[in-house]
Structures are given as structure tokens and as C-alpha cells.
Design brief:
By secondary structure, the chain is an alpha/beta fold. It folds into two domains: 45-253, Uncharacterised protein PF07075, DUF1343 (Rossmann fold), CATH 3.40.50.12170; 262-387, Aspartate Aminotransferase, domain 1 (Alpha-Beta Complex), CATH 3.90.1150. 30% of the residues lie in helices and 12% in strands. It has twelve helices and ten strands. The chain has helices at residues 10-33, 45-51, 78-84, 131-134, 154-168, 212-221, 262-271, 299-305, 355-369, 381-385, 389-394, 400-418, and strands at residues 62-65, 89-94, 112-114, 117-121, 139-142, 172-175, 231-234, 291-294, 314-321, 340-347. Strands 3-4-2-1-5-6-7 form a seven-stranded mixed beta sheet, with helices on both faces. The chain has a three-stranded antiparallel beta sheet with strand order 8-10-9, with helices on one face. Helix 5 (154-168) packs across helix 6 and helix 7 packs across helix 9 (355-369). It is globular and about 65 Å long.
Length: 424
């Protein structure tokens, strides 16, 4: 049997002490910066709101503007979390797609109830809370996940509830959430306010790079809503402007039926426009907004001729598909039940993909090779883009380079304007 004798010395003691100090230091670093810790994620505004002492809201009648995305990271719905704290939730207001988020875009949503609480639809006969619905409320609370695009109607609903609260003289708590496409990139022209509508609520670009709390403050500061509106933003912790959704550490809940995954929200600000010019934009397929096509399109021509500078961060591949009616998503997709020769977008570098720039280059290519097929098929096209520039280009009345210069000018203007409203 081998017997090892360890000779202790001052040198070995010094090594032991040094090693012990280093172990302690490494443990400290892991404790503070551990990338595997459960709490290394963005802390939502609703978490902070629910966890703090809500003494100012005791005995107040609360109206919640919520839908299926209004949950805490542990899966608890905000309504249930507040009821558990014995808060007086008296009314709920729902958005497009309904309280459960399973209704097709544009569908009229009826009033309903949740646990005996009235849910007033803001996507039906009424789109702004009525005087009667607001009569007994002391506070409104907004907690909705949007996708960071101007024509996504949740931000219009936010604008309308801010106006309704201003009319009654009550505060609105905005429980802030991440912009899933980040807070840096800005794309698109400022809305021409002559085209203001439910999908065009205020003069911001298509991709505006603000959280809902920041946008609410901008609405007030620029007087797109009354200047005396009482807005109280409950800020997130840990969110950075450079974050796209995957960086938040949060679980993705599709904000609407045709935004099934975070990547979809990156393409949505641009490829949404294709539906207005006679191209199927992936609606009626498993990959809405991440693929497009038509019976008359040759994918090889498009892929070979589109401006290489507009496809940064993505790869394009041929993909044939047949748009189908999908209950709860779309009843009548463009080219329903017809074979579409299409192209799939695979996003490789999410931060360098400019969805609107790509779409404009795509429309230019389609216009060059398929002039008899590219036409505007909806009267809402100018409103979606923000003004008449893209329509004039398609009609041959505005040059492509001039279109890009005008868009970039507006982007630069907005970038300066928004600075004073940035929270993060």
C-alpha cells in the first residue's frame, strides 16, 4: 500500500490561500453575471407593477386593456394576478384579434366576459372606450405586446384609450414591454396625417423603434393626444435598445395569429405591403410574411436580379406553396388554393435585415420584370405605406432613387425627434 506523506510548507499555504481567493472571486462573478441564471432576462413592466405595493390603487376601480399576451413570465394573466391581490378590476378592454388572440385580422369582436368581468371590445362597433364604459373607472392599465410596426392596430388602441382617459381625467399606467424588433432600427416614411386611420394612428415611420411606453410619451409630447394626459410608464429592467426578442430571455406569445414566431415580426414591417400589390405575402401558409409568391412569378428571376445590397442578413430560396384558408388566421388569402411559385426568406443575421428596404427593392424588381402584374389592389395602400410615394413609383411617376432619398430623409427626421422620449 502506497503511503503518501504531504509536507506542509509556507509556500503551499500561500498557494492554498491564493487559490481560495481566486475561487471566491470566480464564484462572485458567476453569482453576478451567471449567463445561466433564471433571472438573466428582461423584467417586464407588469412584473414590477404587480410586485410593488399598490397602495395608491386600493379601492380604485381598475380598467385593464389586455389580451392573451398580458401575462407575467410565469404564465399568470395580469387580470388573475391583480384579482389575487384583491384589486378591484371592474372592466376589461380587448384589442383586434380578441381577448384570446385567436380571431382573424379585421374581424368584428363582440363584447364578452372573463370571470364575471365585462370585456368591452375595442375592435367592433366601438374602437375607443365610450363615456358609459369609462363612467365608473378611476384608472386604466395597458399591458399589450405589439410588434413595433405602425400599422399594427394595438398602438392605435393605446392612443384611443389615452384619449378616453384624458377626457375623463384619470391616469393610464403603461406596463412597458420590449419592442420585439429592437430599439435602434427605423424604417419608412412619416405618416401623412391626411391618411390617418385605425392602421395609421400618428406620424411615425413604419418601423419606429420605440417601446409602447416611449411611444405613449411621444404621443403626449408631440400633442398627438391631449397634452394633459396623465401617463405613468412602469419601466422594464434589463432591456436594451440593441435587443431583438431572442435577447430578452422571454417566452414568445404570438401577438396575433399570423405572427407565430419572433422572426415573423422582423419581416412584417416590409412584406406586409406585398398584399396590396397582387402578391401573396405568405398568408394562408405556415410562414406568413416570411415567404411570398404568385402563380406568375419566377423565383429564379427575382433572386438573380434583386439588388444584393437589399438582402443583407437573409438568404432567399425558391419555395412553391398553395395558400389555404386557415380558420382563425385567414379565410381568403391571395391566390387561395392556387399554386404559387414563391420565395422563402431565411433570416441569418437579424440585426442587419432591413425588411422595408428589402421589400422596396423587391417591388422594384417585380415592377421591372412583371409590369403587367404589379398593380395596387387596395385603396388603403397609401395609408399603409404612409403617403403616396410608393404608389407614385409603381405608377412610374417617381424614380426609385428619389423614393429612397425621401424615405431616408423622414427616417433621419424621426430619429432626431424621438430622442427626448427614449427611456432606455
Amino acid at each position: 500500500m502506497l503511503n503518501l506523506r504531504i509536507h506542509k510548507s509556507s509556500h503551499s499555504k500561500r498557494i492554498s490561500v491564493s487559490l481560495f481567493v481566486w475561487v471566491l472571486f470566480i464564484c462572485f462573478l458567476l453569482l453576478v453575471f451567471n449567463p445561466f441564471a433564471e433571472d438573466q432576462r428582461v423584467v417586464l413592466g407588469n412584473e414590477i407593477f404587480v410586485s410593488r405595493t399598490l397602495t395608491e390603487l386600493i379601492d380604485q376601480n381598475l380598467g385593464l386593456v389586455v389580451n392573451h399576451t398580458s401575462v407575467l413570465p410565469d404564465g399568470t394573466h395580469l387580470v388573475d394576478a391583480l384579482l389575487k391581490q384583491n384589486m378591484n378590476v371592474t372592466s376589461l378592454f380587448s384589442t383586434e384579434h380578441g381577448f384570446l388572440g385567436n380571431e382573424e385580422a379585421g374581424q368584428t369582436i363582440e363584447n364578452s366576459q372573463y370571470k364575471g368581468i365585462d370585456i368591452y371590445s375595442l375592435h367592433g362597433i366601438t374602437r375607443k372606450p365610450s363615456v358609459q364604459q369609462m363612467k365608473d373607472l378611476d384608472v386604466l392599465i395597458y399591458d399589450i405586446q405589439d410588434v413595433g410596426a405602425r400599422f399594427y392596430t394595438y398602438i392605435t388602441t393605446m392612443k384611443y384609450i389615452l384619449e378616453a382617459a384624458s377626457d375623463k381625467g384619470i391616469p393610464v399606467y403603461i406596463l412597458d414591454r420590449p419592442n420585439p424588433v429592437g430599439g435602434h432600427m427605423i424604417e419608412g416614411p412619416l405618416l401623412d396625417m391626411k391618411l390617418e386611420s385605425f392602421t395609421a394612428p400618428c406620424p411615425i415611420p413604419i418601423r419606429y423603434g420605440l417601446t409602447c411606453g416611449e411611444l405613449a410619451l411621444m404621443m403626449k409630447g408631440e400633442q398627438w393626444i391631449p397634452a394633459h394626459t396623465d401617463i405613468r410608464v412602469i419601466e422594464m429592467k434589463g432591456w436594451k435598445r440593441s435587443f431583438i426578442w431572442e435577447k430578452t430571455g422571454l417566452y414568445w406569445i404570438p401577438p396575433s395569429p399570423n405572427i407565430p414566431k419572433p422572426e415573423t415580426s422582423l419581416a412584417f414591417p416590409g412584406t406586409s405591403l406585398l398584399g396590396g400589390i397582387g402578391v401573396n405575402h405568405g398568408i394562408g401558409s405556415p410562414n406568413p410574411f416570411l415567404q411570398f409568391g404568385s402563380p406568375w412569378l419566377d423565383p429564379r428571376i427575382v433572386i438573380q436580379n434583386i439588388d444584393p445590397g437589399a438582402v443583407q442578413g437573409i438568404t432567399l430560396s425558391s419555395h412553391a406553396y398553395i395558400p389555404r384558408s386557415i380558420p382563425g388566421k385567414t379565410a381568403y388569402p391571395p391566390y387561395k388554393d392556387r399554386l404559387c411559385h414563391g420565395i422563402r426568406i431565411s433570416i441569418e443575421d437579424k440585426k442587419s435585415f432591413h425588411s422595408l428596404e428589402f421589400t422596396l427593392a423587391l417591388i422594384k424588381t417585380l415592377k421591372s420584370f412583371y409590369p403587367d402584374h404589379i398593380r395596387i389592389i387596395t385603396e388603403r395602400f397609401d395609408s399603409l405605406f404612409g403617403n403616396e410615394w410608393l404608389r407614385l413609383f409603381i405608377e412610374g411617376k417617381l424614380g426609385y432613387e428619389q423614393l429612397l432619398r425621401l424615405v431616408r430623409r423622414d427616417e433621419k427626421t424621426f430619429r432626431k425627434l424621438r430622442k427626448k422620449y427614449l427611456i432606455y
